[in-house]
Amino acid sequence: MNIGKASKLSDLTVKTVRYYANIELVKPKQSNFTGYREYSEEDVLKLKFVGKARKFNFSIEECRELLSLYENENRSSKEVKKITLEKICEIDKKLKELKGLRNELSYLANNCHGDDKPNCPILDAFSQK
Amino acid sequence: MNIGKASKLSDLTVKTVRYYANIELVKPKQSNFTGYREYSEEDVLKLKFVGKARKFNFSIEECRELLSLYENENRSSKEVKKITLEKICEIDKKLKELKGLRNELSYLANNCHGDDKPNCPILDAFSQK
DNA sequence: TTTATACTTTCCCCTTAGGTCAAAGTTTAT
DNA sequence: ATAAACTTTGACCTAAGGGGAAAGTATAAA
Asked: Which listed residue, of B2, B36, B80, B87, carries a Cα 20 to 30 Å from A86's Cα?
């Protein structure tokens, strides 16, 4: 099938699918008559796989790693679990950081009257030496 | 003062300070003899202000907006509060998203034996149709 | 069969917020 | 006078594609 159909089936944009071909993440055969990319059913499965992993916040390089484990019949689930646990750690760090930010910002917002006067604790906090 | 000193005083890298000059976020005078940028005390205060706001996850464009409010004697604190509340909303959305991801990933990880066998619920989830 | 429409290709520039490196000019210290 | 430290602009790099142009290809309608 052509890229348009593969794109629809995998629920990715054509641009994305073409990008994945360019970086050799999911690389279909390419006709030497027309130059059109020819996607197989298996290619579509891989595209879907990557789409899912990307939604789980895995980077392209991590997707590449997961994909090679996915394709490897001799893989151990240990490897996959390790990568996943690392990703969870990463998310935890990000969560902590964002929660801290949120607390500070909401503290500032709570102390700002939000009226038509220029006095503003938020700006004061930002201009603190 | 030159950019090096302004950079140290504001706790930003020279590159960052130069970048802010280029995008006219904090734009110092520039000597027409040597071409060196000449930072004033006030410029440094603005740099620090931006540095703080950036740490609070405000984008450069949002910093530009906050900075113009900061410089505007006739501002109303309402405007600043509005921007801040929007930023809090944004952070809340991101938090929700990340928490969802974390839950799904940790569910998958908990169900993965993490042994030397190829069977892996994580990969199974990613390859689900 | 011709034409119109839809699809595909490669190529180039754009995004955030700077980082890295190079060549050349300037200032300061020895 | 010269070396070291500082500054300038410029070009290219990051992640993960998006947007659009120009040109080739396929398919459907007239």
From this structure: B87
Q: Is A68 within the bounds of a domain?
A: no
∠ CA B91-B100-B94 to the nearest 5 degrees?
Answer: 15
ipTM score: 0.82
Q: Are A107 and B110 in contact (CB under 8 A)?
A: no
Residue of chain A whose alpha carbon sits nearest to that of B90: A102
Q: How far is CA B63 from CA A106, B10, B24, B51, in A?
A: 18, 15, 12, 9
A99-114 pLDDT, tens digit per residue, is 988 998 999 999 999 8
User: Is A8 inside a domain boundary?
Assistant: no
Please say which residue of B10, B37, B56 terminates a domain.
B56
Closest among A96, A57, A65 to A82, alpha carbons compared:
A65
Element (H, E) at A37: strand A37-38
For residue B128, pLDDT beyond 80:
no
Answer whether residue A128 is part of any domain. yes
Q: How far in angstroms lies nucleotide D6's C1' from the CA of residue B2? A: 9
Q: Do B75 and A114 touch (CB under 8 A)?
A: no
Q: Which domain holds residue A113?
A: 92-129
| E-assigned strand segments in B3-81 | 29-30, 37-38
Contact A81 B120 (CB under 8 A): yes
Structural domains of chain A, count: 1
Q: Which of residues 64-123 of B touch strand C (CB under 7 A)?
A: none
Average pLDDT across chain B, whole number: 92
> Is residue B33 in some structural domain?
yes
